[in-house]
Automatic annotation (TrEMBL):
Belongs to the zinc-containing alcohol dehydrogenase family. It holds the Pfam family ADH_N. This is mannitol dehydrogenase. Its EC number is 1.1.1.255. PANTHER family: ALDEHYDE REDUCTASE. Transmembrane segments: none annotated.
Length: 359
């Protein structure tokens, strides 16, 4: 059966057809709105670096045709008969997950993101065996449990990236206790994740040092994002002077990079938390961990309860991502620019105004 007839609701989006990662218009279908489902018109969808990895099958898990997008926001058009949390007209979002087993230990602790059977928003198999399609599309249907409410004061376009970049950095700040006023936290990499990490940490009352390979990002970090200090990671004098000064570090870098200098920046009992996903293993020197009882940890997104909490926190502190809004037909150019890190700091596709069916 073709993807167009699989489900009753016709949908339209842009898909990658093979590992060239080139996107083109694509007709498919969405399931009907079940008892606990919410259907919404997609207005904006952020472009995450993982969309690029998946489009090119760089992690070896991609199914084609692939409709990416897991930073999806819009307005509810239909709700199932048993939906309790949402009404037609509500502003909502869907992040990286649309399903989980609901019975494992992680699920019962509101940590659906660590469920071994969690279902990703795109390129995953749904409960009914069909492939999930993401937000580079005109409509979305999701179980209400995996839908978040977007408060009225948050602009939808700037809020979209919070559903991935936001929760990815908010969750480890909270979980690892790096959210106490007066603490000193480092953020490695000033990209889509890093710039949001700085905003959240500052709103929590934490002192923030940005660590980057690019000296030209200093003004941006300190004047625009209000970081307290800036270290060029390749400058040995600067790194040496900052040794042993940080309570924790959020490392957002997805490329190969040395961990030893970062571990050196930590105080005793400090925590280096990895949220970027380098394709190759990094070298981990153990001795510096032993002599300071330091931790190297990882973290990925957050559960649904915490994702809503993060959005509400962002609303209270007026935190949004810094974005460049683009039309749907610019997506291939945007991917080329993303590869060169030529974006400040997140592309967001204006789905509502520019996704036009030409098929």
């Amino acid at each position: 059966m073709s993807t167009e007839q699989e489900h009753p609701n016709t949908a339209f989006g842009w898909a990658a057809r093979d590992s060239s990662g080139v996107f083109s218009p694509f007709k498919f279908s969405r399931r009907e709105t079940g008892d606990k489902d919410v259907m919404f018109k997609v207005l904006y969808c952020g472009i995450c670096h993982s969309d690029l990895h998946m489009a090119k099958n760089e992690w070896g898990t991609s199914n084609y045709p692939l409709v990416p997008g897991h930073e999806i926001v819009g307005v509810v058009t239909e709700v199932g008969s048993k939906v309790q949390k949402f009404n037609v007209g509500d502003k909502v979002g869907v992040g990286c997950m649309v399903g989980s087993c609901k019975s494992c230990e992680s699920c019962s602790n509101n940590l659906e993101n660590y469920c071994p059977k969690s279902i990703l928003t795109y390129g995953s198999k749904y409960y009914d065996g069909t492939i999930t399609y993401g937000g580079y599309s005109d409509i979305m249907v999701a179980n209400e449990h995996f839908v978040v409410r977007i408060p009225d004061n948050l602009p939808l376009d700037g809020a979209a990236p919070l559903l991935c970049a936001g929760i990815t950095t908010y969750s480890p700040l909270r979980y690892f206790g790096l959210d106490k006023p007066g603490m000193h936290v480092g953020v490695v990499g000033l990209g889509g994740l890093g710039h949001v990490a700085v905003k959240f940490a500052k709103a929590m009352g934490v002192k923030v040092t940005v660590i980057s390979t690019s000296p030209n990002k200093k003004d941006e970090a300190i004047e625009h994002l209000c970081a307290d200090s800036f270290l060029v990671s390749r400058n040995e004098d600067q790194m040496q002077a900052a040794m042993g000064t940080l309570d924790g570090i959020i490392d957002t870098v997805s490329a190969l990079h040395p961990l030893l200098p970062l571990i050196g920046l930590l105080k005793s009992h400090g925590k280096l938390v990895m949220v970027g996903a380098p394709e190759k293993p990094l070298e981990l020197p153990v001795f510096p961990l032993l002599v300071g009882r330091k931790i190297v940890a990882g973290s990925t997104i957050g559960g649904m309860k915490e994702t809503q909490e993060m959005i509400d926190f962002a609303s209270k502190h007026n935190i949004t991502a810094d974005i460049e809004v683009i039309p749907m037909d610019y997506v291939n150019t945007a991917m080329e620019r993303l590869l060169k890190a030529d974006v400040r700091y997140r592309f967001v596709i204006d789905i509502g105004n520019t996704l036009k069916s030409t098929l």
